[in-house]
UniProtKB/TrEMBL annotation:
Record-linked InterPro entries: Arsenate_reductase (IPR006659), Arsenate_reductase-like (IPR006660), Thioredoxin-like_sf (IPR036249)
Name of the top EC class for this enzyme: oxidoreductase
GO function terms (MF aspect): arsenate reductase (glutaredoxin) activity
PANTHER family in the cross-refs: ARSENATE REDUCTASE, ARSENATE REDUCTASE-RELATED
Sequence intervals crossing the membrane: none
Gene: arsC
Keywords, in A-Z order: Arsenical resistance, Oxidoreductase
Organism: Gluconacetobacter azotocaptans
This protein's name: Arsenate reductase
NCBIfam families listed in its UniProt record: arsC
Classification via Pfam families: ArsC (PF03960)
EC number: 1.20.4.1
Chemical reaction(s) catalysed: [glutaredoxin]-dithiol + arsenate + glutathione + H(+) = glutathionyl-S-S-[glutaredoxin] + arsenite + H2O
Record GO biological process: response to arsenic-containing substance
Family per similarity comment: Belongs to the ArsC family.
């Protein structure tokens, strides 16, 4: 099994580009299709923290579900946001990549090079 993991959405151009960059470096990552197999709240919180992000920085605010769920409410705490992200994983920003050198939300795609 690879020591590099990507939370991947094949419909996302940035996610596909990151996967291509990894493969160009000779890395075949473990691919987690997080929309089909979302992380649990503890795993998601850990990955976000290891990436050096706040939960708000890791949520996809452009998704319709963000507004529909009222997630723009500044009074919502991290637990509420994480619950929403686990329940509706389209709200998880992508792609997250985990390597032995660290974790990054690879937007833009070239950020993956920081942890290779």
């Amino acid at each position: 099994m690879s020591d590099v993991v990507i939370w991947h959405n094949p419909r996302c151009g940035t996610s596909r580009k990151v996967l291509d960059l990894l493969r160009a470096e000779g890395i075949e990552p473990a691919i987690v299709l997080y929309l089909q197999t979302p992380p649990d709240q503890a795993t998601l919180a850990d990955v976000i923290a290891r990436a050096g992000l706040s939960v708000r920085e890791a949520i996809r605010s452009k998704e319709a579900a963000y507004g529909e769920r009222g997630l723009d409410d500044p009074g919502l705490d991290d637990a509420a946001l994480l619950d929403a992200m686990v329940a509706d994983p389209v709200l998880i920003n992508r792609p997250f990549v985990m390597t032995p050198q660290g974790v990054r939300l690879c937007r833009p795609a070239e950020r993956v090079r920081e942890i290779l």
